[in-house]
Write a structure and sequence with these properties.
Layout: H1 2-11, E1 13-19, H2 23-32, E2 37-43, E3 46-52, H3 56-66, E4 69-76, H4 78-84, H5 89-105, E5 108-109, E6 111-115, H6 122-131, E7 138-139, H7 142-155, E8 159-167, E9 170-177, H8 183-186, E10 189-195, E11 199-208, E12 210-211, E13 218-219, E14 224-227, E15 229-231, E16 237-239, E17 243-259, E18 261-279, E19 282-285, E20 296-307, E21 310-330, H9 333-355, E22 358-369, E23 372-384, E24 386-392
Parallel strand pairs: 6-9
Antiparallel strand pairs: 1-3, 1-4, 2-3, 5-7, 8-9, 10-14, 10-24, 11-13, 11-17, 12-14, 15-16, 17-23, 18-19, 18-21, 20-21, 22-23
């Protein structure tokens, strides 16, 4: 339906009315002569409808022959619009110029977003792309984008895969880093497993190598647990990369400290707001105030102007500065104990889930030491204590 309405608007149409005792007779004559009429409705002894602009004269002539009064009430569409503004040549010139400018600018890249993995600096990637001629305000083609992708992968050996996806005037660069094996991985080697802590072995599972301890044995940090040297009954030996899991009960003492008197930063309610607008890479300040003095808390906000879901080369930046004031705080013993317990809980959370360590038991003591509170925790843990150590060989 929308397409039909669009074509009618492009070619033009008019609203008309007819007045006669039998309007059905005129409709029959119109259809018989091939006229296209729609939106027909009757009101107060008149019949209203719509007709194509190129058929208006035929409709009037037909009404005159039939002795029927026919009048045009309104005209719609592009032909009538052009006729109305035909004396305003500047308006049409501006419209044509605007459409042409929009078509030209749509072939440029105005916003570049880089999704880089951890360890890759987005600023470095952006500079490398700029050296290859790909930055904000660059005209692009499909072949040029493919060429830049290959050149960047050759220039930066950290990149193993990348893609440049174009969405209108926006470009999204996706990157993944390259894995380089260490020198040990490149060499023929025998691997031993040694202990990383003092404790008592609770469980041992060896897939490759020779186990030198068993459950219940006490061990020291740095002790050899699984050897990469396998001895056979005939006296021969073989080097292998040992592989296994050794779990042991260990202990750890952690002290959480909090000063009795500390300084707290407070964000003031006074705020300085700075705004600027970037158009085609040119930054224009909207406020004339400078950066505030002293220590401040700053937040940045960027707004990309969009039209029909596509980003335009117009970026509005806003900086909010709030002053920081220092205030001396005296912590009571009760409050300090609550704070230190929360730190202990956070430490235990990462201990469990980051290192896969099980807390078997804990002993907690709270004391005052000079000008600080101390929460001392003695943990009894169950953890994986095996660490791989390689013996590099010459490959013989």
């Amino acid at each position: 339906m929308f397409i039909v309405q669009l074509f009618r608007w492009i070619f033009g149409y008019a609203d008309f009315y007819i007045k006669c005792r039998f309007p059905e007779r005129y409709l029959n004559l119109s259809f018989k002569n091939g006229l296209h009429i729609w939106n027909i409705k009757g009101e107060k002894e008149a019949l209203y409808g719509c007709i194509k602009s190129k058929e208006i004269n035929d409709a009037i002539n037909l009404a005159q022959k039939a002795g029927i009064e026919l009048g045009i009430t309104n005209e719609h569409g592009l032909p009538f619009l052009c006729r109305k503004y035909r004396k305003r040549a500047g308006l049409f010139a501006g419209l044509i110029f605007g459409v042409a400018l929009s078509c030209i600018l749509s072939g440029f890249i105005w916003n570049i977003k880089i999704n880089a993995p951890d360890g890759m600096n987005e600023y470095e990637i952006r500079n490398e792309l700029r050296q290859l001629g790909f930055s904000e305000g660059t005209y692009y083609t499909f072949d040029s984008v493919v060429d830049i992708r290959h050149k960047l992968m050759v220039m930066d050996n950290r990149i193993s895969w990348m893609s440049i996806n174009i969405f209108g005037t926006n470009a999204v660069v996706e990157l993944s880093d390259r894995f380089y094996p260490s020198e040990e991985d490149k060499s023929n080697k025998a691997g031993n497993i040694i202990s990383t802590a003092d404790g008592t072995v609770t469980q041992i599972s060896v897939k490759d190598g020779t186990a030198l301890v068993k459950p219940g044995d006490g061990i020291k940090k740095g002790q050899l647990l699984v050897s990469g040297v396998i001895e056979y009954s005939d006296g021969s030996t073989e080097l292998t990369d040992s592989n296994g899991h050794i779990t042991a009960k260990t202990s750890e003492t952690v002290k959480f400290r909090l000063p009795m008197n500390s300084v707290k930063n407070i964000i003031s309610e006074n705020e300085v707001i700075k705004r600027n607008i970037s158009i085609f890479g040119i930054t224009i300040p909207l406020t004339l105030c400078g950066d505030p003095d002293g220590e401040n808390f700053r937040t940045d906000k960027k707004l990309i102007v969009e039209l029909f879901g596509q980003g335009l080369p117009i970026i509005i930046n806003e900086e909010r500065w709030k002053g920081l004031q220092q205030e001396k705080v005296t912590n009571s013993a009760e409050n300090a104990k609550l704070i230190l317990q929360k730190r202990m809980q956070l430490y235990e959370f990462f201990l469990r889930f980051s290192n896969n360590i099980k807390i078997v038991n804990r002993k907690i003591s709270f004391s005052e030491d000079k000008n600080e509170y101390v929460l001392k925790v003695i943990y009894e843990l169950e953890e994986e204590i095996g660490e791989k150590k390689y013996i590099l060989t010459d490959g013989s």
